[in-house]
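User: I'm new to structure prediction. If I give you an amino acid sequence, what do you actually give back? Let's try with this one:
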Amino acid sequence: MHHVYTKKALLSLHCVLEEWVRLNRLLGKQWAAGGYDLPWWYNERALLSVFSGAIWNTGNLAFEEFSEQKLKGKHKKFGNGRVDLWFKTSGGEFRAEAKHAEIRITERAKPLTKMRVLMKRAVADAGCNPPDHGNSRRLAIAFGVPCLPASLETKQQRKQQKGFLEEAMKVKHDAIAYFSPSVTGLPEINGWVCPGIVIWLKLVKRSSG
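Assistant: Good question. You get back a string of structure tokens that encode the predicted 3D arrangement of the chain. For your 209 residues, that looks like this:
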């Protein structure tokens, strides 16, 4: 399963997100065949590299992890910091901050709450990026990776997988995409299976501090 949706403000990212889905499908298929790895098992920096690759593959420009003056502290004064990603598409320039989280799906878990907290963290971080004299827009990016107990029956895993994707759509966003392969045949890690990845994007108009 996969899905891509962009509001008008981020319409230029639709093809980027389609390519992001394709790259995750390609890497996921190749790495899962070895029985030991998946591209969405990694940290924020690694996940962002796949998104950056999608930007380049669609004829756009990207530059990752660079030094920049950012708004810091209670009074939001400028100080030394780092921007996760700058990129440019036909829709203009963006300065983006990314966060990621593994969302464990169990009977007691509250996945929607965790997803919303994740998005809130990304928005807060993106709000600290400089406005760059209006030349770029601030963008929050959140990656969510659902994790299901490997001990669950396949039918139950599929039900939980579908429920997670339905909850993911409730998180406030300006664009969303997900790739969610079949739970069967996926490698396990420490008793868990992780059927896919979701990315949310949201424009941030000003510092949320």
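You can read the tokens as a compact description of the fold. Here is one thing that stands out. The chain is about 30% helix and 35% strand.
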